[in-house]
Amino acid sequence: MTSSPEQLLPSTRRALLHRIARAQAEGRAPSLVGAVAREGRMVWTGARSCVEGHAPDADTQYRIGSITKTFTAVLVLRLRDEGLLDLNDPLEKHLPGTGVGEVTVAQLLGHSAGLSAETPPPWWERTPGSLRPELADVLGERPVLHPAGRRHHYSNPGFTLLGSLVEAVRGASWEEVLRREVLEPLSMDRTSARPVAPHAGGWAVHPWADVMLPEPTEDLGLMAPAGQLWSTAADLCRFAVFLSEGDEKVLSEASVRELRTPAVPPEAGQWNDGYGLGTQLVRWGDRTLVGHTGSLPGFVAGLWVSVEDDVAAVVLANVTSGPYAGAIAADLIGIVADAEPRIPEPWRPLPEADRDLLDLTGPWYWGTSPFGLKWLSDRGLELGPLRGGGRGSRFVVQPDGDWRGLDGYYAGETLRVVRRPDGSVSHLDVGSFVFTREPYGPDDAVPGGVDSKGWRGLGDIKE
Fold it and tell me: At 20, is the pLDDT very low, low, confident or very high (cuts 50, 70, 90)?
């Protein structure tokens, strides 16, 4: 029986508090709140403030900036899962007249559409959205800077287009669709497009003096799908759990995994950073983190999930610059995962043995390279090299009895069990490659055939 999540150890809680206290002090943030989720729920939250006795809590709203993009991506994946669009569809098919309609939905989600990073002036984050009432005002006269699909180039207007796409397909506002299809099902009652008390005010801190200036809080209009939302540490912990596990009320685990899959290669020299579909991917030490960071004048935010460790962290602060919320959130994950590593589920045998699958397990040979085929507890197969590097993948059974690759070199490829007329297994066909029980056995179905004289030693070789 799986136990319920345990509270963190006192030493871990103190280390977490120390990290956010140092971040608030060194980053000179008026206030900063952090939270950690583990095993499906929030297990720790802490806060620091410049006003004694008035620290925020996990229910205090902050603006989350570009973390909003991940919510927009979830809405687009829902449309795909319902069959209302394909990620390879050109934007023009569903949102005609933009002037950039040949770029695909997937390219917009992964920031590879080649669109400009920002809108034409004035600076959109500090001005009302009413200054950009039409998509043409958001895109400007030269919206495309790079060939589509060739490189990662972060684009805020690209997510405005995705928000407008959601509105066009659903026939309702982005805000309404988000509330109905994501926020309410995930019980994110304290996430909204406009601030709802209690909420923090946004501040700029002078770079050379300990004085502050209030920042404007604008309604971003059409740019809302790129950065409008306000949320709390508690709500974002719920969202982080969703990004790890999925929720059938919103998106399946398979679709959420797709959000977390790299969409395009990173820039040269930036191999520790990548982007999925509306999610940022980073390598932090020896961990892979998925989530997003965000900022708008007066606010910085960070949300990361380590799926392998089953730990997530959120950091929110009400300051334009200073504390790097993404780094702090990554550190919170490391503190918990290192001090209290995830306890593996107990091993259990399968409920029943399938003789046909059992007979497939063991060594196989691709030419002379030895591979091992395992039958996993989730009834999948795993093929991998037995020595050195090589091609390996997990496979899941299909309705026709063949197997489809889930990851690695053979992702999407077919593993087929080829049988002889008497029903015995001849070989495995994996994406047209033949795997046999013996290395080049004389009766094996090896393309090109096997020399009839068989294996030989040096003395058997005659000129």
Answer: very high
Q: Which residue has the tokens 């004694």?
A: 52
Enter the tokens of residue 447. Answer: 């393309």
Nearest one of 192, 303, 327, 177 to 244, comparing CA atoms: 303
pLDDT tens-digit readout, 382-411: 999 998 777 899 999 999 999 999 888 999
Q: Return the residue matching tokens 């569903």.
A: 94
**Alpha-carbon distances of 450 from 290, 363, 367, rounded to whole Å:** 49, 20, 11
Inter-residue contact 435 to 446 (CB < 8 Å): no
User: What structural domains does the chain harbor?
Assistant: 10-339 (3.40.710.10), 355-454 (2.40.128)
**Beta strand pairing status for 381-385 and 362-366?**
unpaired
Rounded to the nearest 10 degrees, the angle between the axes of helix 325-339 and helix 10-27 is 160
Query: Distance of CA 424 to CAs 168, 204, 360, Å?
Result: 55, 73, 11
| Burial tier of 345 (Cβ tally within 10 Å: 0-12, 13-18, 19+) | exposed
CA distance 429 to 272: 35
With both helix axes pointing from N to C terminus, report the angle between 68-81 and 233-245 in degrees, rounded to the nearest 10.
40
Classified as helix, coil or strand, 339 is helix
- pLDDT value of position 4: 47
Take residue 200 and report the two structure tokens written for it: 């923090």
Spatial contact of 334 and 12, defined as CB atoms under 8 Å apart: no
Q: What is the DSSP string of 161-220?
A: HHHHHHHHHHTS-HHHHHIIIIITTTT-TT-BSS--SSBPPPEEE-TTSS-EEEPP----
Closest residue by Cα to residue 337 from 3, 43, 141: 43
Which contiguous run of DSSP H or E holds residue 293? strand 287-296
Give strand pairing partners of 147: none
- pTM recorded for the entire structure: 0.89
Helices and strands: H and E segment counts in the chain: 12, 19
| Radius of gyration from C-alpha coordinates of the chain | 26
Quick one: tokens of 291? 């989530």
CA atoms of 1 and 338, how far apart (whole Å)? 25
Q: Is the dihedral of CA 91, 279, 269, 139 positive or negative?
A: positive
Average pLDDT over residues 348-359: 87
Contact 280, 292 (CB under 8 A): yes
Segment (H or E) for 315: strand 311-317
> What SS3 state is found at 148?
coil
Identify the residue whose tokens are 């918990």: 336
Across the range 159-178, mean pLDDT stands at: 98
